[in-house]
Amino acid sequence: MEERRYRSAAGAPIALRCRQHSASCRELAVRCPRLQLRSLSAVTSAVWLAAYGLFVLSENSVVLSAAIFITLIGLIVYLHFVKIDQESLLVIGSLGIQVTSSYASGKESTTFIEIGQVKDVVINEAIHMQKVIYYLCILLQDPGDPQGVSEVVPLFQSSKPRLDCLIEVYKSCQEILEQRKTAPQSS
């Protein structure tokens, strides 16, 4: 297993782990920075200080209880539905591509795309907030038109790796997809 350090589009450090299970099976995982205790403490303290200020002004203890309740519910929602620690891509040349997002709470979200539906994996670019960002996406083949694309599935939406990291993932995916294209011709 090989791990390389990169940066996200926002400049945060990320790590790309590559694991080759066989010649036609490769797993690529992008790990985002974990939730920092410092930022969590700062947000919690700010909310609770504001609540204490309102308590002093209103002399109503419901304000403090509401602040604690809102902070805890907010943290649970953030960890379970928003904060993604790792995004992985498992490419199996004979079966398909599995995309998995692992949340900070331990929850995982998995999507599988059959290899017959995959037209190609490409790096696309978009303009966002006066800068160009790059993203990797899977082009799904249109069942009615073999030359057409029915859907574009973007990958690594949370970690947003920079172009140098995306090129590594792209090359790895293309190696396996090329094996799939040349295999039927040789047999």
Automatic annotation (TrEMBL):
Name of the protein in its database record: PIGH acetylglucosaminyltransferase
A Gene Ontology molecular function term of the record: transferase activity
Family matches, as InterPro entries: PIG-H, PIGH-H_dom
Pfam families with a match to the protein in the record: PIG-H (PF10181)
Keyword Transmembrane part of the UniProt annotation: yes
Residues of the Phosphatidylinositol N-acetylglucosaminyltransferase subunit H conserved domain: 88-157
TM annotation in the entry: 40-57, 63-82
Organism: Cochlearius cochlearius (Boat-billed heron)
Pathway membership: Glycolipid biosynthesis; glycosylphosphatidylinositol-anchor biosynthesis
